[in-house]
């Protein structure tokens, strides 16, 4: 996959080959006149970490009744995502949202009103679908419009689109540090390949899109001003019984669960607000989250998930556990209260030309691109 250029200078280096990093690199090359854009990814393949190890939900706002801004942005962004990546979107399943009678932070009536306020489609579920749920624990069930994405198809798109845009892809290559010289206005990114070879890349701009690794650079990189929380999470992959095969379910809003199609494997993910996060800590420089994940004892909690979920959705008890996806999830600490998922977009004043970007949902990519549209890269590129 690696494509090389003869010189060591670049207009931009994008660190992180997930969906965000790939989309930003393509945008810079196609739309902002950057002639040489380098995309660095520490893994062997693109979109193989957080872009893959997640619930694969294309949000339409339903998930965020306590954060109107996040919900509304999802409503705006979802149709755009479906239009731009139709080959990766799975639409042929029934999506249900159910409201619990106890411990939910919204009632069924409040949820229905919220959906109408953001313009999201919502209908009462038909009796046959309602019968899937335990009526003593579920207040009401709604039929909604929400989709899933196939991360493997997004990865295939990324490889093709990056090559067409002329972006240089360097996989198995990790960025270690970001420097600015006192005598050179350019930035320098120190890298290390899996082979042990080290080589710096000089560039005018650096885009730090490393998700959980945002603060893990030495040199002159100042770290993000926004405080981050890291979690080791477990997404259980399940083979569901026939009655749930073409259905996605979310029970909310509180300590509840989701079961969604996972198109990349033809299975369903099972996640639970209480059991999916295994441990958490405040992010800090020098404490590599991926190293912590690598040493984590990955003991599944699927039995506890199924036991609790089965109380609300009895058919889950007949699902077969296949395996679990463990990954580091990064969230902005300021949004712990309302469960909002805005983007992090920081321009580092102490390191001009360096940006850090993080999005909590795949559809947030449009919020990032809108931010980049306001940036003036022309002066530096012409110099």
UniProtKB/TrEMBL annotation:
InterPro entries: FAD-dep_OxRdtase, FAD/NAD-bd_sf. Pfam families: DAO. The chain crosses the membrane at residues 12-29. GO terms for cellular component: cytoplasm. One of its GO terms (molecular function) is oxidoreductase activity. Residues 11-321 form the FAD dependent oxidoreductase domain. It comes from the Bacteria. Keywords: Membrane, Oxidoreductase, Transmembrane, Transmembrane helix. PANTHER family: SARCOSINE DEHYDROGENASE-RELATED. This is D amino acid oxidase (DAO) family protein.
């Amino acid at each position: 996959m690696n494509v090389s250029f003869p010189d060591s200078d670049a207009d931009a280096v994008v660190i992180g080959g997930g969906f965000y990093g790939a989309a930003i690199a393509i945008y810079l090359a196609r739309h902002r006149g950057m002639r040489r854009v380098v995309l660095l990814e520490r893994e062997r393949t693109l979109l193989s970490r957080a872009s893959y190890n997640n619930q694969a939900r294309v949000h339409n706002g339903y998930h965020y009744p306590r954060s109107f801004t996040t919900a509304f942005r999802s409503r705006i962004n979802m149709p755009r995502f479906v239009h731009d990546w139709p080959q990766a979107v799975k639409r042929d399943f029934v999506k249900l949202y159910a409201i619990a009678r106890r411990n939910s932070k919204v009632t069924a009536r409040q949820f229905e009103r919220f959906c109408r306020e953001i313009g999201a489609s919502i209908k009462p579920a038909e009796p046959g679908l309602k019968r899937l749920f335990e009526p003593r624990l579920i207040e009401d069930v709604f039929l909604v419009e929400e989709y899933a994405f196939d991360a493997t198809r997004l990865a295939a798109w990324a490889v093709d689109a990056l090559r067409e845009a002329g972006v240089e892809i360097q996989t198995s290559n990790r960025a270690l540090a970001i420097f600015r010289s006192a005598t050179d206005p350019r930035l320098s990114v120190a890298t290390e390949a899996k082979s042990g070879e080290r080589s710096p890349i000089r560039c005018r701009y650096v885009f730090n899109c490393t998700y959980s690794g945002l603060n893990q650079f030495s040199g002159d990189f100042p770290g993000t001003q926004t405080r981050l929380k890291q979690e080791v999470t477990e997404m259980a992959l399940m083979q569901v019984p026939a009655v749930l095969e073409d259905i996605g379910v979310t029970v909310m809003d509180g300590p509840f669960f989701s079961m969604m199609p996972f198109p990349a494997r033809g299975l369903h993910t099972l996640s639970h607000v209480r059991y999916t996060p295994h441990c958490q800590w405040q992010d800090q420089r020098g404490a590599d989250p991926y190293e912590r994940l690598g040493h984590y004892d990955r003991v599944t909690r699927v039995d506890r998930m199924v036991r609790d979920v089965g109380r609300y959705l009895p058919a889950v008890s007949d699902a077969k556990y296949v395996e679990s996806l463990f990954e580091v999830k990064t969230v902005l600490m300021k949004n712990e209260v309302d469960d909002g998922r805005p983007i992090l977009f920081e321009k580092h004043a102490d390191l001009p030309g360096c940006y850090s970007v993080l999005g909590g949902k795949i559809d947030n990519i449009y919020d990032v691109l809108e931010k980049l549209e306001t940036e003036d890269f022309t002066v530096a590129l012409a110099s």
